[in-house]
Amino acid sequence: MAVFLFRMENKTIVSNWKGSAVTSEIVRKQILARFGEEDANNYDPKHNCLTYNQWLAVGYQVRKGEKALESFIMIEKKDKDGKVVEKYPKRVHLFYIKQVEQIQSGS
Hints:
about 110 residues; alpha+beta; three-stranded antiparallel beta sheet; 7 strands
């Protein structure tokens, strides 16, 4: 599995996006509809669109009321020898960088 890193306000952001052009385009179209052409052009599935738990892990919280972007990943079920015997889609909920804010530490 490929893991991509980037820095955002001194935090390392991790995305395990695997590189499907189909899923990237699905999410890009949703960003276009919600946020406009500029954000759709700035969308990078490796860097600025993560799951809820991935954002939490790097100190960011999804803003209250934000609706997830929907995508999918293909799950591969393998036998004991590692041979793929079944593939099926799994729904994934993602949040674009404009939908999150840094968690403030308690003072």
